[in-house]
Fold this sequence. Notes:
Number of strands: 0
Number of domains: 1
Largest sheet: none
Radius of gyration: 20 Å
Bound molecules: zinc ion
Structural class: mainly alpha
Shape: globular
Order of helices and strands: HHHHHHHHHHHH
Helix content: 40-55%
Number of helices: 12
Strand content: under 5%
Amino acid sequence: MHILVPSPNKPSTDTGRPKSLCYLQASEAKQRGEITESEYFHHLFAHCTWAGEEHEDDEKCLVNGINWALLDADPLAYLICCWAQRMDPVDDATPFEDVFKAYRNGGVAEVEAALNALSKPDHVREFRRMLAMLALQERRADVLKMCSDAGGFSYDSYFQDEANRLDPNKDPETDKVLEESDFRKIYPRKRWIPWEERGAKKKKEEERDSGEKSDGEDEDNDDWEFDIAAFDEGGEFEINW
Ligand SMILES: [Zn+2]
């Protein structure tokens, strides 16, 4: 007699649970108030598990396929996306989600406890990088200081960007943390330029390099203050894209 056994790989939609969301979808759903922040992180870190579903956009975070839309909309999700591409998947992403629960609901001590619960030192460094990004975005000086004091991670160009957006008069505490950290020793303040504009600039450079520029176009508009080489800046630490 043949017995029907449910497939362990049954699509989540068949079980009545919400379908997994990709990075930008999760970010937008959170923005619209359709999912909570906990659910947002659950969708993001599901990408770091063996059981996580794959999406069409996942590979956009690879080095040669920068997902400009995600980077512009949500640098933290972009950071997690890049990490998910290169880390070894885990069985359970709950400890990852717990770090951000601790950030939201606790103080520095709770965040440190959640970081200490992570199993690998390189995961701890990555989460400090992520937390530094979020703390900077939210102008949360205590957590930013905790992360920058511990160090061990590079400051990506989008961190640099967010730092350049910060108004010292409006957020003096966060600015003080930045000024006293190694960050400002490596990265002097620059004018902030939208990512989409940078994508257009990079595309133009690529067209120029491949000899595809059209006649009559402004070829040497070099008054851009940003430098695409910012992607190579990482101080003593490697930047992983
Ligand atoms: Zn995805």
